[in-house]
Amino acid sequence: MTTRLFGEPVARREDPRLLTGQGRYLDDLGRDALAAAFVRSPHAHARIRDIDVGPALDVPGLVAIYTWEDLPERVGRALPLLIPHPALTHGRTAYPLARHVVRHVGEPVVMVVAADRYTAEDACALIEVDYEPLKPVVGLEEAVQGAQLVHDDVPGNVGAHLVQEVAAADGRGAREAIETAPHTLAFRLDIERSASMPLEGRGVYARWDGHDLRVYSSTQTSTSVRMAVAAALGLPLPQVEVIAPDVGGGFGVKIVHPWPEEILIPWAAMTLGRELKWSEDRREHFISSAHERGQVQYVRAGFDDDGRVLGLDVTILHDHGAYTPYGIIVPIVTSTQLLGPYKLGAYRVEFSAVYTNTVQVTPYRGAGRPQGVFCMERTMDKIARYLGKDRTEVRAVNLIQPEEFPYDQRMTFQDGRPLIYDSGNYPEMLRMIKELIGWDDFVRAPGRGIGIGCYVEGTGVGPYEGGHVQVTSDGRVHVSTGLTSQGQGHETAFAQIAATELGVPIERISVVTGDTRRFGYAVGTFASRAAVVSGNAIALACRKVREKALRIAAGALEADPSDLQITDGVVHVVGAPTASIPLSTVAVLANPLRYAFDEETAKATQFSGTASPDRPPVAEGEEPGLEGRDYYSPIRSTFAAGMHAAVVETDPDTAEIRIVRYAVVHDCGRLINPMIVEGQIHGGVAQGVGGALYERMVYDSHGQLVNASFMDFLMPYATEVPHIETAHLETPSPLNPLGIKGAGEAGVIPVSAVIASAIEDAEGIAIDRMPISPSELFGLRTAHAR
Ligand code: MCN
């Protein structure tokens, strides 16, 4: 048995359970609970004149009906704006149930509680809501004209406007640098809306026992849901527990806290004194959760004869939908991460976050980065085309060099800290991706093209995560951390960290995430942060436990702690393997209330039975038990990076687009588990293929989402996702003890840029939109031929 597991492709320990149907998802719980269903707005914009619940009251099995008027003040308040920003001058959030006005199709208006979901839905259908339809605002350009307003008090529908500018070394601003540059380009990019679409929707189940409230939620942030629920319901924090059971994907949409249902279901469960559950259906997910990506970008670039970017000026219209629960994090990420692995002369970015009568926008895997990378990589390709140069050559002259780290982009990152890249080797990465895809030997032909895309990703944002590690007298190690898991493989990766730090076989290690009973202080799983922040916290907690174990063992073995080592769960004197003591025994010795798990340990600890009456006092400065807790709080983000390349073929007649090859070089610092990282990259690339070729939310002029089902919203199947060739580069982060950078979002970030680059190469036509369908490509061909 090896315990040096950090960096090994250990098979995911959670998979046998999940693959054999033993996962426990939200809807597996509370089978006897009452069910909730919601009446949701059929209008994109309307005033509520009246709600008549009368016709539903006689439905057999109905338990309760609530409108906004029925909610107590604390529960009915507008939902919190989670990340305020000075530029967000007109932030707006929804009420848990609509109060007077609805601002998008799908906004919850009435909650119905009944014996089962069928009855609740039947009752919903009988409730009559009298709406006065208002003209909806759909489409970014229409919205900024401001003729109709989504919120009466937000002029021009602009919730936030921000300009960020980094001057050139000679002090010139981006616009001046562009004007005086030898060459300039200007173009517009259109990026459509998409959404996270986890296969398991959101869901909440609550139980109130008269004193304590237990809430299960399919969430990415159980600790934050707990705080929000406690505050809304006026309960002390210790009386509320929130547990994320197995979560069938999140991809960002389950970070929002609280969702209206996360407040309403616990409140109604408490009010009624009954168990209550709500599980989102697919249509609800389309129209009542969150979307992302939608942006229009106007780009101007000035460059020299080598393709060096002297100035870049980007103006972004960001479609925020009806509300800003998560602040303006998405356009801020676009603005900062757009810079990629490059050093530009001068840079100016300006964005307006614009309200429309559509589903609100919150981060979806990549969170603004795919849009930023699309912008920068399209710029690089266009410069190369303009100058008649190889596209990798233009990238090469703009790359930050290895000796330039730490590299300060002189901007403020999304977490308010300086945008400083900690480490990397971008030229080596470019060499690797060219070799992997065979760039220099590629044989170009009509309808066959090759493309490339590069990105950096700030990962591991703070403020903190914690880890708790306990060794019990059976020699097992119990690790817990507060953030939740949605399929990332934390159970395996965190066990690998603990096994390596403690010298214990991985089989003896269990990991619990997302359960506030086990760990109450945490931030959550998003922004590719779990490995960096929780991973390091767990390592630090393990180091505390290890130190204590060695101290206790040193006493028992009459040795110096510095001469001791732990291997396969046994502490022994270096060079004298027979002078040893198992960790199970050390765990017994660590607790004066001595209880040995078995006779053998009892004998080893010289007790007469499994429980000993001998109760020595706890030594000063010690705590009973072999356990430790620690927190890790990063000073700033660590920057992962990657470069992808693809070969595509386009059909000359149908304009069908086929990805023939896809290659990835990725650097997330030291790898905990290369197999998990590859899995994360594959999943991300699959979502990226969706964003590049298929996925879009289609709204009509009335603000109706016309493709709100899996019949109409196209996603790639396995048949559309190519085999993905992956290579790793490991430049450890100097910022954290384990040298890790995040990996969870990387795969999705550059895919649209890479595919556009390859299609453009195959067709000789500018591809300035994502996604691009065969019919759109056909249209471009026709226009080009004219
Ligand atoms: N890892 C590693 N070595 C590294 C970095 C990471 O072995 N140097 C491993 C980690 O231990 C972890 C996985 O890779 O098991 C992802 O780690 P990390 O980059 O820290 O990302 P998070 O765990 O914080 O996950 C969040 C990220 C995001 S932001 C989205 S969105 C996303 C994603 O992960 N949603 C997912 N991957 C997902 N995967 C699944 N199956 N489902 C989702 O909803």
UniProtKB/TrEMBL annotation:
Which segments constitute the Aldehyde oxidase/xanthine dehydrogenase a/b hammerhead domain?
A: 20-135
Q: Which UniProt keywords apply?
A: Molybdenum, Oxidoreductase
Q: Name one GO molecular function term.
A: iron ion binding
Q: Which superkingdom, per the lineage?
A: Bacteria
Renumbered residue ranges of the record's region Disordered: 605-627
Reply yes or no: does the keyword Oxidoreductase apply.
yes
Task: Show the Pfam families listed in the entry.
Answer: Ald_Xan_dh_C, MoCoBD_1, MoCoBD_2
Fetch the PANTHER family from UniProt: ALDEHYDE OXIDASE 1-RELATED, XANTHINE DEHYDROGENASE
What name does the UniProt record give this protein?
Xanthine dehydrogenase family protein molybdopterin-binding subunit
Q: Organism, per UniProt? A: Nonomuraea turkmeniaca
